[in-house]
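G.,

No rush on this.
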Amino acid sequence: MLHTGLYILDIRAYNFDVAHLYEHLLIRAFQDTLSAQGYPPVLAGWIGGETFRDAMFIDYGLYDERAEKILQDFISSTPRISLDDLPAELARIEVEESAEITIELPAVQDMLAKIDTEIFTKDVPNINFTPYTEFEVHHVQPDILKLHKAKAKFRDVTIKIRLSNPTTDQLTTLLRMSPLIHDVTSQVLQREYGSYEQATSWARRPRLSRDATLTAIHSVRRKGATLRDIKKVLPQIPEQLQDNLTRHKSALDHYREAFLSTPNWNSFPIDYHRYAGLVTTKQNIAAHLTYENMLDILNNLSFAVHETNDEDWRACA
């Protein structure tokens, strides 16, 4: 089954941008913890965060209760983050926000360490507080980390991932593989070029098309890599996902079972018909999620990259 939850942290006493940086460091540290304990993050589920000026929210959906226990132990422990990840996550925030950062490093490190001692709350029925006013926020939060907009130094690129002329069985398998393919695409591009995922699409097969196509839009530094550079690393996507599937076949069982047992996903067959013209059921989709079928998909994918255009954004809407 799918194990979900929400953690909340009161951050009213801290600089918003430092708290946002902490969110990045926290999620990265948990993913490293999962990997160290034998779970490839892409097959374990997802963890996400959103930071506001008064509160940080960490939500998750994990396919195995053991992975959820790892998260519970991780988030209730201290220290949680590693400052060794600080340069990479600062760079990633710059790409996310199309901005350049100025930082008072000792003060930021000190504030990060203080946030790391704070206790997250989960499933607390009586949590309730009013945010500070804008004046109070400015007053209590020193400007030790600032973002300066620099949109001209960043650009969006679009990755097109295609399966040509798929059979009905291949299309059924691809549709449920799409989240895994997008997750690994993000991992590869972030690792190679510090990218930030902006938008993704379902696998779409228009009625007059023979191909099924996934679209992913990523922000990168304008001087960080050429389109040719990016295209060269895209073959790592099926290679990395195949490696994860081969070494962690039991995780695939949890992924399949979570799909079947999650009521919120009962409407997925409607989406599959909307985007790919496929009429099927959850049970049939799950039956197609075999190791052999997924490897067949990975061996037949092709990749292309270009500058993002309006049509790409519409594909991800």
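When you get to it, here's the other one too:
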Amino acid sequence: MKTRTILFLLLCLSLVACTHGPDSDDTDLSTPSIGVPDGYFVATFTSTSSTDPVTREAVTGPDARISDLRYLIFLETGEFVKEKRVTTPADGVQTWPLPVIRDTLARGSYRVVFLGNMEPSLFNGSEVLTGYRDGFANTRIHLPQYEFTDNTEFYMAQATFSDVLPTAEILLQRIIAKLDVSRNFLDAEDALNMLVANIVAQVDYKTILSTTINGLLPGPLTAAVQQIPLASVVLIPVGGVVGAVDLLLGTLLAPVVDLVYDLLLQRLVAAVGSLLAANTESGAGILDILTPLLNPWSSLDGTSAALVTVDGFPSSMDLNLTVTDTFPDGTQFAYSFSPDPNVKSVWIRGFAGTYNITEVNVLKQGLVGGIVVDGILDSSLLLNGDFIDINDPITAVLGVNEWWNADYSFLDLGLKDYTLQTDGEAPLSIDITLSDLTNLDGLLGGIPILGPIIEDVVGTLLGPIKLSVPVNLPLLGIENLSVQGGWSTTQQV
């Protein structure tokens, strides 16, 4: 597991608040107050250099990831004291580190909480911070109704201070976790080989071929045996022509079945591919058809969105970053696909916690609304299909400011119904001659009594016998294809 570099924004504030009481909004933006009222003290909020073993990068210079910054001050016992805005979206891109902040407060013990990007205007008016005027314990941070971007993720820092220890070191940390859900590319040729292997495993071709060849072979064998000079006489010891044919069939059936079966396996990939291609309207080759079919996210345009069904997705948390509420099980969320054209993935950004993704569908163009999709969507808005949708569940366990990924892969390609199609002409025919059998002379020469009788005519009468073995296949249409997939183990990056 790689240790992801956790990005922090260091605060070095110079915003001076010269208030005459806990609720005053009188602010001096230049220097600290010279005359501090009796019973008050000046608190200083400054940057910190962390010694945490996890690598942290301080941001220097212009950076747009935090466009709104405020701080809340509470008494040590949790009662709300004041709220101050440090920056707003209207202030434009900030240059980091920011100056030091000083605030004048009545003597006592306090807790300060800095909050980044918790401004409704960043989320189309969606309220994301509530209850803070009712105290620290009642403050709630809510998942916005609109998707996070790199410049709207939530940040937080908090510290305690007092008139005895008036300086608080502030380190802003992102408090949003991200799960990167992607699909692995499946090579079409590998998939076709999977399909053929499943057809062979599900259809007992050995038995089917044995029955078919057992019905085809006696006719040409009889015709050949009847051409043996003085057949009615020389074959008396083995029961005449009928007895000889029975002996030949008993000896040849198994090797002929094996030969035809091996040839079938060699030709089945091409035959299945041709039939699949023929049953589509595009006229393209099978690999050109299967590649986008098995990798459906790769061809999605920028207007498509993932519809993710989640159980237990955190909807709000308190200032201790403890989840306090979750969305109802089965809630659907609409997420954009990542901008990378080579790897289509879905970035599920939210609060730390444990939740279960039960389905991932794909929305067609034009669906409007926030991240939470209410009600049951009209199926016409969905790009339905086993190949597009992911119906295998996965559990995510994410910590604060952690980035995890999970890859989904098609593990198997088969058919929903393996029933052979027997209407009309068989789509595949395996043609052989008996001389194709390895050691035909040895096979027939080893038949008791009959072997010596026919040894002179094996090459002229029996070897040239031809067989055309029809082979039926299951329905090979896209609608009959079945896929099985699975998730990799979630990994932290």
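The two ends are 7 Å apart (CA to CA). Residues 1-31, 50-56, 365-370, 372-384 have pLDDT under 50 and may be disordered.

Enjoy the weekend,
O.
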